[in-house]
Specification:
Layout (H helix, E strand, L loop, with lengths): L14 H4 L15 E7 L7 H20 L7 E7 L5 H14 L4 E4 L3 H13 L3 E4 L7 E3 L2 E3 L8 H12 L3 E7 L2 H16 L3 E8 L7 H10 L3 E5 L7 H8 L8 E3 L7 H4 L2 H4 L2 E5 L8 H14 L8 H20 L4 H8 L4 E4 L2 E5 L6 E11 L2 E11 L2 H4 L11 E3 L8
Parallel strand pairs: 1-2, 1-3, 3-4, 4-6, 7-8, 7-9, 9-10, 10-11
Antiparallel strand pairs: 5-16, 11-14, 12-13, 13-14, 14-15
Helix pairs in contact: 2-12, 3-4, 5-6, 12-13
């Protein structure tokens, strides 16, 4: 498949137009006066609900750095690729970014499947990779940094909160049918059992599934106390519509650690989304000076096209800033000096609070917030300061084993 090319406005507010073309990338640039980086992020296809806000915050971060003079006396050139929710395109575009464009770093990947399609590839090409997305944890690779949350930071806090609030012990899990859904569901089971409960059933759905009638009947028959959802993508929003249409809205407490990062709570009606509990490192409704200032800058850049910002978009903003700060401190864009600088107490203060790179895992220590959807927005209920990615830390120590290149899973702890 040939890739279409077109220039991208670096400083304008034309986000919607800029994100519309498949495989798009910047075209006019001079290698001697710019530093090239790339994002490979879905802005079309079934996962565009996640990708478009991420691209917006990456553009904002790059613009802010460039307006302050850039890095090392050069402007940053952000090359944007749209893999269209296609794993084959992910690998093709990652290869182009690393070999033809020779970018200093790649940012992107939505699903865990897309991450694992390009992470080994970028490691082989020695191109630094940032994954700005919450996921199931366990990816251990010195060439890789994750600025999203892991289950030990979110599921571990959300499960007891909701179980205690509703005095619920029996949990039904519905999840996407790929590694994120499978492994995250095992973490849910682990934390439910640790809190004295039981997962009475689990079901998994390919990303193209839109019919949930049989599942709704299964849930009604099982009579759980709580429903944990790990559904992914635009097609899976059909579950919440069908649940509400069946007259079941509000009949069963629901909780999730991915509902809302595709802005489902805005796309769905309040009847379809109200009452969903979630835990993230960022919610747009956070009432802090740093977040208010961030949203003002975002609205200043994109105006009426400004997207609603969720954890994935916030994590993308942090990722760009962690990389830029490391380049400035290292005095070079060369990969190993930048990695070593990131491992030496890299801290970024951003809209969700402080983000610190854990040198052993290359994941972030960060604040986490529990909220509930009310009137198409999150009501922030409780916050936890500076939670570490302890799940990944149990299996990954890149200080002791810098050559590790493994995606560990919870399988050994299941049951």
């Amino acid at each position: 498949m040939s890739l279409k090319r077109r220039s991208v406005l670096k400083g304008g507010a034309a986000m919607v137009g800029a994100l519309a073309a498949p495989g798009l990338m910047t075209q006019a640039r001079a290698a001697d006066d710019t530093i090239k980086i790339a994002n490979i992020t879905d802005v079309s296809g079934g996962l565009d609900i996640y990708g478009q806000p991420q691209v917006a915050t990456m553009q904002l971060a790059v613009d802010e750095i460039n307006q302050k003079g850039g890095l090392l006396g050069k402007q940053i050139d952000l090359i944007s690729y749209d893999p269209q929710s296609d794993l084959q395109l992910y690998t093709q575009l990652a290869t182009e970014a690393a070999t033809r464009e020779r970018v200093s770093a790649v940012f992107g990947g939505i699903t865990s499947a897309s991450r694992e399609a390009i992470r080994p590839l970028l490691r082989r090409y020695q191109t630094l990779y940032f994954y700005p997305t919450l996921y199931e944890g366990g990816a251990c690779d010195r060439n890789y940094f994750c600025t999203g949350t892991t289950p030990a930071q979110t599921i571990e806090k959300l499960v007891p909160h909701v179980m205690d609030k509703f005095n619920g012990k029996k949990v039904y899990v519905i999840a996407a049918d790929y590694n994120y859904g499978w492994i995250s569901a095992r973490w849910v089971k682990h934390y439910v059992e640790a809190h004295g409960g039981e997962v009475i059933a689990d079901e998994y759905f390919p990303l193209d599934v839109t019919e949930f009638g049989p599942t709704i009947k299964n849930i009604q028959a099982a009579k759980p106390d709580l429903l944990y959802t790990l559904l992914v993508g635009g097609n899976h929003m059909s579950f919440f519509r069908q649940w509400s249409a069946a007259g079941l809205g509000g009949s069963l407490p629901m909780f999730s650690t991915d509902f809302g990062v595709g802005n489902e709570h805005i796309v769905l009606s309040k009847e379809e989304s109200d009452g969903m509990y979630a835990a993230y490192a960022y919610m747009q409704e956070l009432d802090t000076p740093a977040n208010k200032a961030f949203l003002e800058r975002l609205n200043g850049k994109f105006g009426t096209n400004a997207p609603y910002i969720n954890e994935l978009a916030s994590a993308a903003y942090y990722a760009i800033n962690h990389w830029a700060q490391a380049v400035e401190k290292a005095g070079t864009v060369d990969r190993m000096p930048v990695i070593e600088t990131l491992e030496a107490n890299s801290v970024v203060d951003g809209p969700g609070g402080k983000s610190t790179i854990d040198p052993a895992t290359h994941h972030c220590i960060q604040d986490v917030h529990i909220g509930v959807v009310k009137d198409n927005a999150f009501d922030v209920l409780k916050s936890f300061d500076q939670l570490a990615p302890t799940d990944t830390a149990e299996v990954c120590d890149l200080i002791a084993n810098p050559d590790d290149n493994t995606h560990y899973t919870i399988t050994s702890r299941d049951g």
